[in-house]
Design brief:
The complex is a heterodimer of chains A (about 325) and B (about 220). Chain A is α/β, with parallel strands linked by helices and about 325 residues long. Helix content of chain A is about 35%, strand content about 30%. Chain A has helices at about 45-50, 75-80, 100-110, 115-125, 145-155, 175-190, 200-205, 225-230, 235-245, 265-280, 315-320, and strands spanning about 5-15, 20-30, 35-40, 60-65, 65-70, 85, 160-165, 195-200, 210-215, 220-225, 260-265, 285-295, 300-305, 325-330. The two termini of chain A are about 40 Å apart. Chain B is an all-alpha fold. The chains are: A alpha/beta (about 325), B mainly alpha (about 220). The structure holds adenosine-5'-triphosphate and magnesium ion. Magnesium ion binds near residues 44, 45 and 165 of chain A.
Chain lengths: ~325, ~220
């Protein structure tokens, strides 16, 4: 564990006039789970695909375990790809092959002998909880089961890195949750480094240690997941979070007063801090909106509160910050 | 229509069936050996695919289109020199097999290309990301996944071949279709002609049934 596993250094990918990935620098540690989020077309998939060179960058370097991979071709490139698993949004299973044959495919590519292959396939089916479905065709499996086959196939050759492009976007919320649990579990048990692309914050909040936000090909913000949710800085991050967290109010700035956006770790702490603040300044805090959720295994309370117009705003903000909250004045954006 | 004609019909038909079998058999073999690889080539050299090669694709695409747009009778004549080289003669069923093969290869290559296009690009991506070689990708993913479609393409090609082989009579190729033309068109022996046409209909129907059955089976498998 620990140590840099993957390093992208000023990577750019262009498709004609479109710059899909624009000068991205990103370091990922061994065993880390990193999310790449952003609006549609932000360049997440393209960036992910540079890591196994499905997309070759026009500029920049990519190092894996300190070896530069950008110029790899032929057998060396195929060798690299055998060491990196990839999981897809639409599963991309081979339709005319059974679950077992799908999982065996990378093993055949790697030249693993038949007996060893069969043993490994059985082991992998067990690992993803599909013990009895070896002979099922993809279309006989549910979406969640298909994704499990996809994950087993990606892991077949013992890769150290798993790339996931929207692994839960085609699944219902419950199934998505089980796939996220599986990925998290695999990360812990196998020490895999995971890079997970998602356009939805929801999918990364329970899975990722760290999240990088992409906007127009650039990484505009990258920090530990809990911090990103508690204190989003870039407008693109805020837009994503607001859309998802349901903290967008139907009407901006209703009623008088100054509105604060407050984020606090721990639900109990949140209530305590807010009521202490109200007592201390002898003011009424009007709650416009709020939500308590779990992010990366921690509780995060996010509230929109309104202060009376005559309240000592900067003193209140100061007090909340001293109490451990992230505070900003909501300007209706 | 006389008794003698009726008496010789089974023998003539049997003989003609043999000739048709030879011509169609040779052309089918050529299709499998050349048509499928050319179809694969047309597909994988396309822009954005793993063996993208624009000049090569343009050339092959142009050639198949020239062959497909040339009326078969003209192709038959144009290819006479080639036929002489390959078959050593320009008349008879074996000679007729040469232009038939050329036509069938071009025809099937295009149908095969279309069948390969039906393969979900996601599967190609999955195979590439597993580090598969082009060879494995083509055989174990593209062709394997497109197999039902390729069988349907083969069925269509085979049936077209039987139609085309009727014109092989021009170079003395014989065959069932030629028999029908000789009896019906030149000798006005309508009952004999009807009998041969019936044989052709049954033949085509059998091929269609078998092709459909095989494709369905492969789909389910
Ligand atoms: N093969 C390609 N050829 C041309 N343009 C491409 C190609 N792949 C991606 N693009 C363009 O690059 C940009 C980034 O695309 P990308 O798929 O990486 O976005 P994304 O963030 O994954 O979006 P989504 O959430 O919709 O999947 C888009 O403008 C897209 O149209
Ligand atoms: Mg994408």
């Amino acid at each position: 564990m620990g140590g840099d596993h993957l390093h992208l250094d000023h990577v750019s990918v262009r498709f004609g006039a479109i710059t899909a990935v624009d000068d991205v620098t990103l370091t990922i540690r061994r065993g880390e789970v990193v999310g790449l989020v952003g609006a549609s077309g932000a360049g997440k998939s393209t960036l992910l695909r540079t890591i196994n060179l499905l997309e070759r960058p026009q500029a920049g370097r990519i190092r894996i375990d300190d070896a530069d991979i950008v110029d790899l071709r032929g057998p060396a490139l195929r060798q690299l790809r055998q060491g990196i698993g990839m999981v897809f949004q639409r599963f991309n299973l081979f339709a005319r092959r059974s679950a077992a044959d799908n999982i065996a495919f990378p093993l055949r590519v790697a030249g693993v002998p038949r007996a060893e292959r069969q043993r490994r396939v059985a082991e992998l089916l067990e690992l993803v909880g599909l013990g009895g479905r070896a002979d099922a065709r993809p279309r006989q499996l549910s979406g969640g089961q298909q994704q499990r086959v996809g994950i087993a196939r990606a892991l077949a050759t013992h890769p150290a890195i798993l790339l996931c492009d929207e692994p839960t976007s085609a699944l219902d919320p419950e199934t998505a949750g089980s796939i996220i649990t599986l990925l998290r579990d695999l990360n812990r048990r196998l020490g895999l480094t995971l890079v997970v692309v998602s356009h939805a914050m929801d999918a990364v909040k329970d899975l990722c240690d760290r999240v990088a936000v992409m906007d127009h090909g650039r990484i505009v913000e990258s920090k530990p997941t809990i911090e990103l949710f508690a204190a989003p800085e870039h407008p693109a991050t805020r837009a994503l979070l607001r859309r998802e967290a349901g903290l967008d109010l139907p009407q901006p700035a209703q009623g008088a007063g100054i509105r604060l956006r407050v984020a606090i770790h721990g639900a109990a702490d949140a209530t305590a801090l807010l009521s202490a603040t109200a007592r201390r300044f002898a003011i009424d805090l009007i709650f416009d909106h709020g939500r308590i959720g779990h992010v990366a295994g921690e509780t995060l309370a996010q509230v929109l509160v309104r202060l009376p117009a005559d309240a000592p705003v900067s003193a209140v903000i100061e007090h909340l910050r001293t109490g451990g909250a992230q505070v900003e004045v909501d300007d209706g954006r | 229509m006389d008794a003698e004609s009726w008496a010789t019909l089974p023998r003539e038909l049997g003989h003609a069936l043999g000739e048709t079998g030879l011509m169609v058999g040779v052309a089918t073999l050529a299709t499998a050996v050349l048509g499928l690889p050319i179809g694969v080539l047309l597909f994988v050299t396309e822009r954005g695919l793993f063996l993208a090669n624009r000049p090569l694709r343009l050339l092959v695409s142009f050639l198949t289109n020239v062959i497909r747009s040339t009326p078969f009778v003209i192709l038959l004549v144009l290819l006479l020199p080639l036929t002489q080289i390959i078959a050593g003669t320009t008349i008879g069923p074996l000679a007729a097999s040469v232009p038939l093969s050329v036509a069938a290869v071009a025809f099937f290559a295009r149908l095969a290309e279309a069948a390969l296009r039906e393969v979900d690009p996601g599967m190609i991506e999955a195979a590439l990301s597993a580090g598969a070689t082009s060879r494995r990708l083509i055989i174990d993913v593209l062709v394997w996944e497109a197999l039902p479609g390729l069988v349907r393409a083969g069925t269509i090609t085979l049936i077209s071949l039987i139609g085309l082989s009727a014109m092989a009579g021009i170079v003395g190729g014989g065959g069932v279709g030629d028999l029908a033309i000789r009896f019906g068109y030149y000798r006005y022996e309508t009952p004999t002609m009807v009998a041969t046409v019936v044989v052709l209909v049954v033949l085509v129907q059998l091929i269609q049934w078998f092709g459909d059955w095989l494709a369905k089976r492969l789909e389910r498998h």
